[in-house]
Automatic annotation (TrEMBL):
It comes from the Bacteria. Residues 128-256 form the N-acetyltransferase domain. PROSITE patterns: GNAT. One of its GO terms (molecular function) is acyltransferase activity, transferring groups other than amino-acyl groups. This is GCN5-related N-acetyltransferase. It holds the Pfam family GNAT_acetyltran. It comes from Coriobacterium glomerans (strain ATCC 49209 / DSM 20642 / JCM 10262 / PW2). Gene3D superfamilies: 3.40.630.30, GNAT acetyltransferase-like (3.40.630.110).
C-alpha cells in the first residue's frame, strides 16, 4: 500500500465529523499536509500539522509513521478518530504511546466580553508590558527559547508569520517571559498557543496575553480557537469566556 500526499478534496469526507481547526488548516491548504493510503480511493487519511497527527477513516498502520514533511518530533500528539484507531496506536507504539486527555472548547464567535478582556490585559505587574508579536527580533527571541518555541515554530520564518500569524508577548526588561500566539492558521481564524517562562508563571501573564490576542483576533475578523492540553489550560480558557465542548483522548507518542 503506497502512502502519499493527497489533495483535500480526496479525503475531506473522512474528516467531516471533526471540529478541529488544525484539520481545517490542512483542508483549506493554509498550513499542514494531508496523507492517505491511496490517492484515488482513500479509505484512511491523516492530517499533519506541527506536533499533531489526526487519524481518520479505516485504521491503517502505515499512516501512523509516514511523514513526508521530514519534521523531527520528540513527542507527537496522535489523535485517533475512534476506538479502533486507539487500539492500533496502542498496539504499534506500546509504552512509547502515553494516553492523555485534551479538552475541546465550543466554537462560539460571539461569546467574548470585550470589556472584561480589556481589563484582564491591564492586570499586570508594573515591570511587565504587552507587545504585539510583529517584530522580527521578538519573533527570533521566541523561536530560539525552548519555553516559547511553539508560539511561532509552525510558520518557519518571520515573513510567513507576519503574513499568517498573530501574537502577543509579555516583556520584562525587554525580554519575552510569556506569550499567546497562533499555533496555526486556517482561513477564518487561528488555534491559540499559550506559553510562559517557568519562573514567571502564576502572575497573570498568560491570561493578559491571551486576552489581548483574542481582542486582536476580533479586530481582524478571525476566530481565536482554544483547544486545552490540560485542565489548567481549560480553566484559563473559561476565565476568558470559552466553554467546554468535550474531552477527547489522544496519545503522546515518543519518537525514537
Amino acid at each position: 500500500m503506497a502512502m502519499g500526499l493527497v489533495a483535500p478534496t480526496a479525503v475531506a469526507a473522512l474528516f467531516n465529523q471533526w471540529d478541529d481547526t488544525l484539520i481545517w488548516s490542512c483542508l483549506d491548504e493554509t498550513m499542514g499536509v494531508l496523507i492517505a493510503d491511496d490517492a484515488d480511493r482513500p479509505s484512511a487519511a491523516a492530517a499533519l500539522l506541527g506536533d499533531f497527527r489526526f487519524c481518520a477513516g479505516a485504521p491503517c498502520e502505515g499512516l501512523l509513521r509516514f511523514d513526508p514533511t521530514g519534521a523531527a518530533h520528540d513527542v507527537e500528539i496522535v489523535v485517533p478518530h475512534d476506538a479502533a484507531w486507539e487500539r492500533l496506536i496502542a498496539e504499534n507504539f506500546g509504552a512509547a504511546a502515553r494516553p492523555h486527555v485534551r479538552y475541546a472548547t465550543r466554537k462560539e464567535p460571539d461569546v467574548f466580553d470585550e470589556q472584561l478582556l480589556s481589563r484582564l490585559t491591564e492586570a499586570l505587574p508594573s515591570t511587565v508590558e504587552l507587545r504585539d508579536l510583529d517584530d522580527e527580533a521578538l519573533f527570533e527571541a521566541c523561536r530560539t527559547a525552548a519555553w516559547s518555541r511553539d508560539l511561532v515554530a509552525n510558520f518557519g520564518s518571520f515573513e510567513r508569520y507576519r503574513q499568517l500569524g498573530i501574537g502577543v508577548v509579555a516583556l520584562s526588561n525587554g525580554i519575552p517571559v510569556s506569550g499567546a500566539s497562533s499555533y496555526s492558521r486556517y482561513r477564518f481564524g487561528i488555534e491559540i498557543e499559550v506559553d510562559t517562562m517557568p519562573a514567571e508563571r502564576r502572575r497573570g501573564l498568560a491570561r493578559a496575553c491571551s486576552a489581548r490576542l483574542i481582542l486582536r483576533c476580533r479586530e481582524r475578523g478571525l476566530y481565536p480557537s482554544w483547544d486545552a492540553h490540560s485542565r489548567a489550560s481549560l480553566a484559563l480558557a473559561e476565565q476568558l469566556g470559552y466553554h467546554l465542548s468535550h474531552p477527547y483522548p489522544v496519545f503522546e507518542v515518543t519518537r525514537s
